[in-house]
TrEMBL record:
Bilayer disposition of the protein: Multi-pass membrane protein
Source species: uncultured Nocardioidaceae bacterium
PANTHER family: UPF0410 PROTEIN YMGE
Localization in the cell: Cell membrane
Gene Ontology terms: cellular component: plasma membrane
Family: Belongs to the UPF0410 family.
Keyword terms: Cell membrane, Membrane, Transmembrane, Transmembrane helix
Keyword rRNA processing: no
Sequence intervals crossing the membrane: 6-24, 31-54, 66-86
Protein name in the entry: Integral membrane protein
Length: 97
């Protein structure tokens, strides 16, 4: 993998990570940008593996199915990352007396 491919993967990973954050349920804006980037890159890589495992072989032009799988995979990774980091922005509904 050349330096150009790595730069493209980082840029696409950031975009996919942000889209995954947008698609993820709830308030997932509490994870740092670097973690969003990692979720996006993971979404692209893991999404491609999942896509290929279910018989996806690409198509001419833009393969929308592959990108949808990558975005959904990144969304799952964002939810997992948000849960693991414990940086919840939700306040407890219980009040102290």
């Amino acid at each position: 993998m050349g330096i150009g491919e790595i730069i493209v993967l980082i840029i696409v990973g950031l975009i996919i990570g942000l889209l995954g954050k947008f698609v993820a349920p709830g308030d997932k804006d509490n994870i740092p940008l670097w973690l969003t980037l990692l979720c996006g890159i993971g979404g692209v890589l893991l999404g491609s593996v999942i896509y290929g495992a279910f018989g996806g072989d690409g198509s001419g032009g833009i393969d929308w199915t592959r990108w949808i799988v990558a975005i959904l995979t990144a969304a799952v990774l964002v939810v997992i990352a948000s849960s693991l980091t414990g940086r919840n922005t939700h306040k407890s509904s219980r009040t102290r007396v």
